[in-house]
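User: I've been trying to design a sequence by hand for this structure and keep getting stuck. Would you show me what you'd pick, starting by listing the structure so we're on the same page?

Assistant: Good idea, let's start from the same input. This is the structure you sent:
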């Protein structure tokens, strides 16, 4: 195992142990919080009120027929803290706090699903080895809440991702992002995609290269339309 991989796994283990043994606290104001409900464990009630989701439509055409997000990753600092802790510090319970923000935009999410007659949700996948190391897929957690709000299902196995890609977040140039993610996804069940309207769900989009490539693969397998929802636009 490479030194940086060992350090990452060690830090992950420490974070998980701390979340079990140490008192919980608000990631924003650092006030102590209750263990239950989980939605208040890492974001206190007062700071929940500071989250101001704003339903926004982006542009990822032609691959994506409609893209939406509720936070700006650069200006919504509290949302950024939550997403960062979920994605990089692997604090899985933060998904419950994020679910509260999603509920604030539930009318928009239901309308998106109803008007476009979306059949099911596909979370952006991790490669199975990365999923094993992380313990969960943050996009799957977000997708579960969107599915609960919209009253539709989540299809995990439809889309798979190859290993060996550099993390998109570490690549700044748009052309390099496009090259890195090219042909990264494969549709495992083409019959399941045929003629369907699908909603892709991820945590953060920057250039949109990942969502576009995933949508391209799904449409190549026969999907009628592909929409996308992310928590934030960077």
């Amino acid at each position: 195992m490479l030194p940086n991989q060992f350090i990452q796994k060690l830090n992950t283990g420490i974070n998980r142990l701390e979340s079990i043994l140490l008192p919980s606290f608000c990631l924003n104001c650092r006030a102590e919080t209750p263990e239950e409900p989980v939605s208040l464990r890492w974001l206190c009630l007062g700071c929940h009120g500071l989250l101001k989701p704003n339903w926004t439509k982006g542009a990822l055409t032609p691959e994506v027929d409609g893209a939406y997000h509720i936070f700006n990753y650069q200006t919504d600092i509290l949302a950024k803290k939550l997403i960062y802790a979920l994605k990089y510090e692997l604090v899985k319970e933060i998904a419950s706090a994020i679910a509260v923000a999603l509920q604030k935009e539930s009318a928009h999410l239901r309308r998106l699903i109803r008007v476009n007659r979306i059949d099911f949700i596909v979370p952006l996948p991790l490669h199975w080895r990365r999923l094993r190391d992380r313990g969960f897929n943050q996009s799957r957690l977000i997708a579960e809440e969107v599915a609960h709000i919209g009253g539709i299902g989540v299809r995990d196995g439809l889309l798979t991702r190859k290993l060996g890609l550099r993390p998109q977040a570490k690549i700044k140039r748009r052309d390099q992002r496009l090259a890195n993610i090219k042909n990264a996804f494969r549709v495992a069940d083409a019959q399941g995609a045929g003629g369907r309207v699908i909603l892709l769900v991820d945590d953060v989009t920057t250039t949109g290269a990942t969502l576009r490539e995933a949508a391209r693969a799904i449409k190549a397998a026969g999907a009628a339309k592909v929409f996308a929802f992310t928590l934030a636009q960077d």
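That's my pick for every position. To get oriented when you compare it with your attempt: The radius of gyration is 18 Å. The chain is about 40% helix and 15% strand.
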